[in-house]
Amino acid sequence: MAFAFVEFTKLKKLLGLDKDDVEDYPQLEFLVESVQDAIEDYCGRLFEYATVTNERVNLSFESRMVPLLRLPIESITEVRVVTSATSSTTTAYEITPYGIRLDIAHGGYSSQFDYENAVGGNVWIEVDYVGGYETSPPGPVQRAAYMQMGYEYQNIDNIGAQSVTTEGGTINRPELGLLKEVKSRLQKYIHPAKMGAGF
Q1: Torsion 121-123-128-133 (CA) sign
Q2: By mean pLDDT, which of 3-12, 21-30, 131-140, 153-162 is the weakest?
């Protein structure tokens, strides 16, 4: 089964749609992609299952942590230490829930400066790995997406408007973006690296 951030059958019930084909609602495809992008950007991670090659991250010598975007991590294929002059494979790492932790201290370098001088310049880590969810994101993330989709679809004619005036009066609307309740549901799925935290 292919990955689906939200399911059309559930959206159909939520939005009270009559037709059975998602292609009859061209706005939905745009909104699904938009909401998925917004949620992944807010969480600082990617949810869809994929094989990733050459994901490059600057090395933090102090923490030795390398955050990876596509979570959860299923397996690591290869980790490379890359400089402007060299590239070498390393097996001196351990997998954490949010990336990998490198064991670079085993080389005896006492500081980032010493390490960079020894290897010839700035240091990056390149990682090939498999990660993400195969069919759908976790339940709370998917429910947050349905909530955001419902709000945006019902207000699609007024996207970006700060207030809407009808025969019944004027309604103030929140600024365009994820709803406060949606953000609340996503808190536990935010990548610690986005918040500047160790992991």
Answers
A1: negative
A2: 153-162
pLDDT at res. 114: 57
Residue 8's Cβ-count burial label (10 Å; 0-12, 13-18, 19+) is middle
Separation between Cα atoms, residue 143 and residue 151, nearest integer Å: 12
For residue 159, what are the CA distances in angstroms to 39, 81, 86? Answer: 18, 46, 50
CA distance 86 to 94: 23
Residue with tokens 């909530």: 147
> In the prediction, which pLDDT does 104 show?
63
DSSP 115: H
Integer angstrom CA distances of residue 107 from 92, 103, 140: 10, 9, 43
Give DSSP secondary structure letters for 13-62: HHHT---S-GGG-HHHHHHHHHHHHHHHHHHTSB-B-EEEEEEEEE--TT
**Nearest 10 degrees: Cα torsion 60, 63, 67, 72:** 160
Q: Over the stretch 72-116, which tens digit does the pLDDT of each residue have?
A: 999 999 999 887 777 889 898 999 999 998 886 544 455 555 555
d(CA 56, CA 81): 10
The Cα 196–Cα 63 span in angstroms is 11
This prediction's pTM: 0.81
